[in-house]
Amino acid sequence: MGNSGSSSSDPRLASATRAFTQTELDDLRSLFASLAAKSQSNGNHTSPDVFKEYIGIDGPLGDRVFDLVSQKRRDQRITFEDLVIAKATYEKGTNEDMEEFIYKLLNVSGDGTVGRSDLEVVLTSMFDNLFRSQSSEPKAGSYKEIVEVFINAANSTSDGMSFQDFQKWCSLLPAVRKYLGSLLMPSDSGSQVPKLVYPDNIDDSQILLRKEYAWHIGGALSPTELDEWKLLYHSSIHGLSFNTFLGNMLNDGPTVLIIKDREGDIYGGYASQPWEKHPDFYGDMRSFLFQLYPEASIFRPTGANHNLQWCAVNFTSESIPNGIGFGGRVSHFGLFVSANFDQGHSFTCTTFASPCLSKSSQIYPEVIECWGVASARADQDRTHANKGTVLDRFKEDRNMLNLVGLANSSE
């Protein structure tokens, strides 16, 4: 397959071919034959329109993908050899190979510099592709605000974004990295958006977790955790009440805690373990902190310590502050909300290599919401296990203290 304009003389072809098994190469030949047939090219090449339909991306980003895969020949065709080389990078290449390709992909203008306008075009195209099916009449510029939020996480200068800054940007926005790294993959692993489930009596405008934010957070999670997220607590409905919050944690799985403070900033944390009473830090290395507005970022555990999750209830010792939090150390958390749910703080912390998540270290929550994260299988597995709410379990703890005459010592 191929023609005189193909890349068969490209030294990368031999190594790219070796990256695949014979069965995989046969599958690639079948794929190319199908694309070439749709292109009506007598089996010689794939046309731009057919290729962009295959990857599901049109517009400037689709044009840029086609340009790179076709080796920038400008002949409006992709050969079988082109497809093998590109697929080898996407499916078999090293992480650095992939990131170099994505970095070039971001430069949709083709001027050699990844600038702010390039990022705007790429992100707008991504969101349009991800969410167009969920919006009957998408409006021009409807993603302008969310695009700004994602660009704000980038360290871009007038000279553009360097490759090192791009890598940092990808670490803060794993969903972007996952999406752009899956355009030529056989599955749509970068396109999963959790289904957000909440009561009919809650207006959409009250929900902090818009679908773009859910996709952003989900970029740091496994596919099994992206099925359905259920709203368990919302302060506008349930009031700013710690007891109500704990009582609504009906699932024993992970949760997404989101806070909007009086300054308008939105941030929170992914809790990998249930919110349960502990006198010390607990949790595991799957937890992380995030920012949603005015910039979007995710901060994963560094391994510096295991001060991951905090949930203290009805302790009287000043060394055990009552409330919920993540990271840092006691009284100097990466994120903390007091048991009154009326104030808290956020400090730079080594647990997640995170900055202060708010404009100031002292925070005053205006809205707090929490979502239960669980796959359908996990829901079924937990049906008959750990029955009762968190408060029920706290009551059981107190009953046990009463039995041994120690109840008053904890108050």
TrEMBL record:
<dbReference type="Pfam" id="PF07534">
    <property type="entry name" value="TLD"/>
</dbReference>
<feature type="domain" description="TLDc">
    <location>
        <begin position="207"/>
        <end position="374"/>
    </location>
</feature>
<protein>
    <recommendedName>
        <fullName>TLDc domain-containing protein</fullName>
    </recommendedName>
</protein>
<dbReference type="InterPro" id="IPR006571">
    <property type="entry name" value="TLDc_dom"/>
</dbReference>
<dbReference type="InterPro" id="IPR011992">
    <property type="entry name" value="EF-hand-dom_pair"/>
</dbReference>
